[in-house]
Amino acid sequence: MNEYKITKLPNGTRIISEFIPYVKSFSLGFWFNVGTRDENASNNGISHFIEHMLFKGTKRRSARRISEEIESYGGYLNAFTSKEHTCYYTKGLSENLAKSFTILADMIQNPLFKESHVRRESGVIIDELHDVNDNPEELIFDIFEEVIFKGNRLSMPVIGTEGNISKFKADELHNFHRKKYDTGNLLIVVSGSVENDELVKLAEKHIGGKTSRAKVRRDKFIPRKANDLILEKDFHQVHSIIGRATVGFNSKKRTIIKVLSTLLGEGSSSRLFLAVREKLGITYQITSFLNSYQDVSSFGIYYSTNSKQAERVMDIVLRELKKLRENKVTEKELNKVKAYIKGGTLLGLENTSNRMIRIANSMLYFNKIITIEDYLKSIDAVTAEDLIKTANEIFNEEKLIKVILKSNDSKMPAVA
Q: Is the dihedral of CA 352, 353, 355, 360 positive or negative?
């Protein structure tokens, strides 16, 4: 049985620990409830920019010293920004928890934001943006969410725009950091061979005694009419997504849609993989996905192929969606899909970083820890009747949006 402990400090910071006695390591994450959804058109990308800047040094440590201190005892340090959260995390041996905690606490509270560092890092991030734009397999997902989340801040890319990235100044970054990196907006999570009392003592010592400020308030997603989109660039393949916006973490139906997505295109025994790649050999990659936020998700089917086969693959995708709407899934297939999801979940828990991330997401989205046992029960509870009912609700062809990236000379017909 997992041993979770939750502590809330007077300054509003929440601390969650999962004690695992049979490992000799830990994964520690400092999570802030801030991301793209807290930006606007004029500062889109600032959360991601600040994530980069926190590695550029503090009043006590240079960028080089930060990395050397972590790596000198075999640790690992990294971070990521999403549309709703930013996480700074480290892995290491349990005996080095205090050292790692001290470094992370210093980074999040005392960034320098030197103007020279800002100018230099803007070039790095713009180069990262160009890499995304040159990679259709990554770019198309940003464009898809821009289309289906039109009118909401979720439509903006995490990395931001080149215009914004190039104009950010130290003062603007500092002000955003001061407002959003509040102790009441901080969640500290650790998974591994770490005692909760030790973690709490470290937080009390190293996390400043500021009081919590205003709670995070975000615009609720309101669906708007979206149109299909074709973008022509110098690509060798045609890259396509067909999908839509659907329910988020706040809906119980999300679990049913997760099962539907897995049945359709997650894994080499999924319907789409077998129908398109194994049977016909007309695409290398085809997969379905469910990318979820608090109140909405992006569901879609992605594939790439040559221009001659693109229309044929789209027809097969639509045919498979029609089958799900009209024909009941057999118990044998449903049980296979459930076993695939449960197996992948349990295998992922052999990694303390995955465990730490799962706990954090559970607290951030549900304000409680959803145990593995409860999650597996929710998968088992999905019925064949649930699938056909939900498939008819979300796979209505008239409500599906197509986003296609193709070469300038592609002969693929225009989207209707």
A: positive
Residue 68 structural domain: 3-206
Cα separation values, 92 from 107, 171, 204, 343, 370, Å: 17, 34, 21, 26, 26
User: 212 lies in a domain?
Assistant: no
Show which of 173, 206, 239 is a domain's final residue.
Answer: 206
State whether 189 and 264 are in the same domain. Answer: no
- Global pTM reads 0.94
- How many other C-beta atoms lie within 10 A of the C-beta of residue 219? 11
Q: Confirm whether 191 is domain-assigned.
A: yes
Number of H helices, E strands in the chain: 15, 11
Question: What Cα–Cα distance (Å) separates residue 50 from each residue in 66, 70, 176, 308?
Answer: 16, 20, 9, 44
| pLDDT, tens digit, 9 for 90 and up, residues 247-288 | 999 999 999 999 999 999 999 999 999 999 999 999 999 999
- Cα–Cα distance between 48 and 84 in angstroms, integer? 11
pLDDT at 235: 86
Q: Which residues are catalytic?
A: 51
Q: How far apart are CA 231 and CA 106, in angstroms?
A: 44
pLDDT > 80? residue 170: yes
| Cα distances (angstroms) measured from residue 229 to each of 125, 131, 337 | 27, 22, 32
Give the model confidence (pLDDT) of 286-345 as tens digits: 999 999 999 999 999 999 999 999 999 999 999 999 999 999 999 999 999 999 999 999
Residue 57 backbone dihedrals phi, psi, to 5 degrees = 120, 155
Confidence grade of residue 385 (pLDDT, cut at 50, 70, 90) = very high
